[in-house]
Amino acid sequence: MRVAFCSSEAVPFAKTGGLADVSGALPIAVAELGCEVKLFMPLYDSIKVDEYGFVFASDLKQLMVPVAGRQQPVNVFYGHLPDSPVEVYLIDCPHYYHRGSVYTSDADEDERFILLQHAAFQIMQRYSWSPDVLHCNDWQSALMPVMLRRSYDWDDLFKPTASVLSIHNIGYQGLFPAGSIGKAGLPREDFYSGGPFETHGGFSFLKAGISYADIVSTVSETYAHEIQTPQFGAGLDATLRARGGDLFGILNGIDPAVWNPMTDKHLAANYDSDSLDKKQKNKKALLSDFSLPYDPKVPVLGIVSRMAEQKGFDLLQPVLEPLLRQEKVQFVVLGSGQPTLEDFFNWAAAKYPDRVGVYIGYNDALAHRIEAGSDCFLMPSHYEPCGLNQMYSLAYGTVPIVHRTGGLADTVHDWHEMGGQGNGFSFYEASPFALITTIKRALALFQDQKAWRAMQRRGMETDYSWGKSAERYLDLYWRAVHKHRGL
After folding, report:
1. Which one, out of 132, 143, 278, 338, has a CA that is 20 to 30 A from the CA of 183?
2. Predicted pLDDT of residue 16
3. Residue 396's pLDDT is what?
């Protein structure tokens, strides 16, 4: 099977969030199942092509790509995802992609990703490469299913091509003025109130893609159900319910070459489920990183997160101080984002210097050490399409405490609810009371180290690698092909 994978970001070339992790790992996992995969993404000014072995594609020099009623010349750099057969085509257009960041608030943000999608089609045409499946991701490539049927339907090359659109976060929809339809070279007949293109009077890239894709996927089974409700659908719930028979949830995976306590180079001591005693060395080293005192009997709760409303820290704010007064517990926090949340955690560290450690910013090595050195990992997110940190935590024997939503509900099973057979702790109601009650349940069980070890091992022995997810995506690709071809 031939798969064209289009994304606005991919590890290791450019990353702002989980989409990059998926785009850097899933194509490789699918290729390992025998697929021929090509990845298309922009060449941002932050990408050092020489470092990754990219070469200038001279046969694609000055490729003319339609955008906003004109032909925009672009160049292309060619390479591979590291240590894999997955071909990568970086669309080189400094006018659009040398902005100092992956995403912008510029007036031509729509044009930046219209260009990406048309360029991918143009490259495939130049090489006469006919994909069986277009796998598009989020709003930045969500117009490709529409273009496939409305802009490139004349080309027999794409007659057999089916489309799969993956939604990584329904909150980001690519909503632009109606004039963007013309910029994309699409007909306006689908733009009317409640129509396939229209949302809140504007042109929604994501809604258009949902309406036209053969199959729609998202990043967990629970999230696939949630986004069909008004509470979580961000205004697209009715559109998604209409496609309910074609909507599937598949959990993201984690890369065991990167997140593995047995081989992780960032740790003070490597360990596995049979050598959990070594986790204490990591706990001691982690507390040293934050200048906090070490006591093996005091549980450490770790947080690695964007500091944003979505992440549920408004639930933690009212209960953190009571928790610190009532319980023997320490917190280590890594993240950045909303200034009021940064200020809150800095205040907590200043008031409780022996109990709370905070690092504002991003530090990959420290993120690994928090996963390995913490006893629990806290994720009280209001919504979480998939979540990766809870899976990292399970792999590292660090017990997750989560709000039961999205991928957190699919991966973390409450110890008490499962009759002592769970792998973490979860709560249903998004309230401070539910959060503090659940944290206290975890702290109480921490005193029973035999039960705690059993829970740690259960998490560590579960396979959350990309292998299983890739097999499900391959099934989804075939489902899309059969539907498109009427088989």
Report:
1. 132
2. 87
3. 98
3-class DSSP state for residue 73? strand
Q: At how many degrees (to 10) do helices 313-326 and 339-351 cross? A: 10
Instruction: Please state, in angstroms and rounded to a whole number, the distance separating the CA atoms of residues 214 and 175.
Output: 22
Cα–Cα distance for residue pair 297/421, rounded to 1 Å:
23
- State the chain's mean pLDDT as an integer: 97
**How remote is the C-alpha of 218 from its chain's centroid?**
10
Q: Under 8 Å CB-to-CB from 480, ≥6 apart: which residues? A: 133, 162, 163, 164, 214, 215
pLDDT of residue 38: 98
C-alpha to C-alpha distance for 164 and 134, rounded to whole angstroms: 6
Determine contact, residues 1/474, Cβ cutoff 8 Å.
yes
Helix segments in 34-188, DSSP class H: 94-97, 109-126, 144-150, 179-183
Residue of 352, 309, 308, 310 lying closest to 332 (CA atoms) = 352
* Dihedral sign computed on CA atoms, order 153, 7, 33, 214: negative
Predicted model pTM: 0.93
Please give the single-letter amino acid code of residue 321.
E
Please check the confidence at residue 487 and state whether its pLDDT lies above 90. no
d(CA 379, CA 405): 10
